[in-house]
Amino acid sequence: MDTSLFSDLLCESLNDNSGFFFKKGRLLEQGETPFQVYEVWDTPELGKLFRLDGYFMTSERDEFFYHENMIHPALVSHPEPETVLIIGGGDGGSADEVFKHPSVKRIVLVELDKAVIDLSRKYFESVHHGSLDDPRMEILIEDGLKYVREIGPGKEEKFDLIVLDLTDPLGPAAELYSPRFMAECKALLNEGGMFVLHIGPPVYAPQRVSGLMKNLTSVFHIVAPYFVYIPLYGSLWGMACASDTRDPRQTNKARVDEIIRERSLPNLQYYNGATHEAGFALPEYLKKILSS
């Protein structure tokens, strides 16, 4: 095979046998922090694109596929969300979606790597739309694991939603997807609070998806998985909303659309009542993976 064919491509593996690519375009910045290697590209297909350690994180043109679906199924199902904790999410895209809900008074965003925040401010305004500098936002540069454990159960700080907007559960990040950490997050939820995370590509990493579902169901009474295609990730991608009392599957299409109107949620490009219901509608092969 002529390997020169790949010299102009940004490639990522989905597993040992599969992968995908985008044409490179122009490299805007690259470097290495104490935690990871980063690249910012201006690509012909997706506009500005951000990679960490060779993995695609976000891009200008498709970020809404991920961020809208990460945030709105949970927040639309909550009657009046006010406080949100985001662990990771340094690009500001999840925070931007949270701030669309008018009842939100405070976001605490805990990001390990300050460079992610700085690069997002520099290159990805079209992703965060100023949310990183919103007066309701508190940004903490520290380890999310340490932050949650230092708050601890019984302290005053509680949240209506906790979002794990992290890299995949590999290496040091794996501990943040453990049952222990999930239980520690659960202790920081208000009554009726919800916990959201991504669980990966079921077609290419079914064991990861089923393993994370086992972790969630060992901690929460209600676990609602849902799936959406993410162009930047090259696959159908899983997310899950967990709670002891609130089930987003009980919020039907008509009610979702009504809440969107009531809250005047602006600039939605993906999420609506139909997509809310569709995400939770599982084909048989997914049911099998989730129960394995």
From TrEMBL:
GO molecular function, one term: spermidine synthase activity
Protein keywords: Polyamine biosynthesis, Spermidine biosynthesis, Transferase
PROSITE patterns in alphabetical order: PABS_1, PABS_2
Span of domain PABS: 3-244
Active site: D165 (proton acceptor)
Catalytic activity as recorded in UniProt: S-adenosyl 3-(methylsulfanyl)propylamine + putrescine = S-methyl-5'-thioadenosine + spermidine + H(+)
Pfam family name, one: Spermine_synth
Annotated EC: 2.5.1.16
Keyword Lipoprotein in record: no
InterPro entries, per the entry: PABS (IPR030374), PABS_CS (IPR030373), SAM-dependent_MTases_sf (IPR029063), Spermi_synthase (IPR001045), Spermidine_synt_N_sf (IPR037163)
Annotated family: Belongs to the spermidine/spermine synthase family.
Annotated HAMAP family: Spermidine_synth (MF_00198)
Name this protein carries in UniProt: Polyamine aminopropyltransferase
Naturally occurring in which organism (per UniProt): Methanospirillum hungatei JF-1 (strain ATCC 27890 / DSM 864 / NBRC 100397 / JF-1)
